[in-house]
Amino acid sequence: MTNPRYIPRDFAVEPSEFGRKKNLKWTSVPADATPRELAQRDAAELQHLLCRGVLKLYMPESSNTRIIKLAAALDMTYDRLQKMLSGRVVMQLEDIGRLRVLIGPRLDYWMLRGQSADVVRMIEDRMTQERRARMQAGQQPPQRRS
After folding, report:
1. What does the alpha-carbon distance between residue 103 and residue 122 come to, in Å, rounded to a whole number?
2. Is the distance from CB of 69 to CB of 59 less than 8 angstroms?
3. Contact predicate 25/14, CB 8 Å
4. Which residues contact 63 (CB under 8 A, 6 or more apart)?
5. How far apart are CA 37 and CA 33, in angstroms?
6. 143: burial class by Cβ within 10 Å (0-12, 13-18, 19+)?
7. How far apart are CA 126 and CA 101, in angstroms?
8. Helices of type H across the chain
9. Which of 13, 50, 114, 141 could pair with 25 in a Cys bridge, judged by C-beta atoms 3.0 to 4.6 Å apart?
10. Measuring CA to CA, how many Å separate 53 from each of 37, 59, 95?
């Protein structure tokens, strides 16, 4: 394997929380940071948001079986998916495309930042809580209308 250009999780104050923690703290940007370094840090933050959404959706109870199935559905190795979700490798546009085909436009909301992102995440968190409560109660999820 070739050396990566950068490791996304290295921009996080707590690298082990990459893709997991809601309000991940990022390292400060040096005053002399190059445009490339700024772009890499921004890309790391976007990857964190996507990975957090994927982990929240596919691993609510930390089940490796679900990630194995996700890797198969994405036609990628389990090892690559694990490294990508933990920020050890850079997510590629093809990876985002594969996730979007599988998950749908929800992926777009995961990359939002700022006030509108807070509103969308609050709504999604509420929907997730309701879905889990229904599953625990043994109820079927409501059918989507066409």
Report:
1. 19
2. no
3. yes
4. none
5. 6
6. exposed
7. 24
8. 35-58, 64-73, 78-85, 93-103, 106-110, 115-136
9. 13
10. 25, 10, 14
Nearest to 111 by CA among 120, 101, 123, 98: 120
Structure tokens at 78: 């389990």
Q: What is the pLDDT of residues 64-90, one digit of tens each?
A: 778 888 899 999 999 999 999 999 999
Tally Cβ neighbours within 10 Å of residue 36: 10
User: pLDDT means per 10 residues in the chain (146 residues)?
Assistant: 78 95 91 93 94 82 75 93 95 93 84 74 81 78 54
* Residue 23 three-state SS: coil
Cα radius of gyration (the chain): 16
104/100 Cα distance (integer angstroms):
5
Amino acid letter at 142? Answer: P
Phi and psi, residue 53, nearest 5°:
-65, -45
Dihedral sign of CA atoms 72, 74, 79, 85 in order: negative
Q: How far apart are CA 44 and CA 51, in angstroms?
A: 10
